[in-house]
Amino acid sequence: xxxDDSTRYAADTVAAQWRLFLDGAxxxxxxxxxxxxxxxxxxxxxxxxxxxxxxxxxxxTGLPAVxxxxxxxxxxxxxxxxxxxxxxxTLGVADTPEEAFELIAAxxxxxxxxxxxxxxxxx
Length: 123
Fold this sequence. Notes:
Low-confidence stretches: none
Distance between the termini: 17 Å
Number of helices: 4
Largest sheet: 5 strands, antiparallel
Strand order of the largest sheet: 1-2-3-4-5
C-alpha cells in the first residue's frame, strides 16, 4: 500500500467511526456531543472513541491507542466535565458540548493529527 493509499484508508476509517457516533451509535454517546466534537476540525481528523458515555480521541485507529487532547463526560446536570487524556486532571466544566470540545481542541499538542491506521507502536 502506498503512503497515499494508507492516508486515504486512515481517513476513510476515521470518517466511518465518526458516522457511527453521529448516527447515535446505539446509545453509546449523545449525538449532540458527537456533533459538537465533529464541528472542531482538529478533532475531526482524530479517531473518536467512547466509553461509558465519555468521548475521547486517539492518534491511531488500533489498540493500544494514543489518547490526545482529553475527554468529555456529561455531568448529569446538563454540563460537561473536560479532563485531560486518560482521565487526567480536570481541565474545566463546560455549560455546552460545544464549549467542552473547544477546550479539548485547544489542548491538542501541535502536529497531532490526522490519525493513522495502526497502534501506538506505529507512531
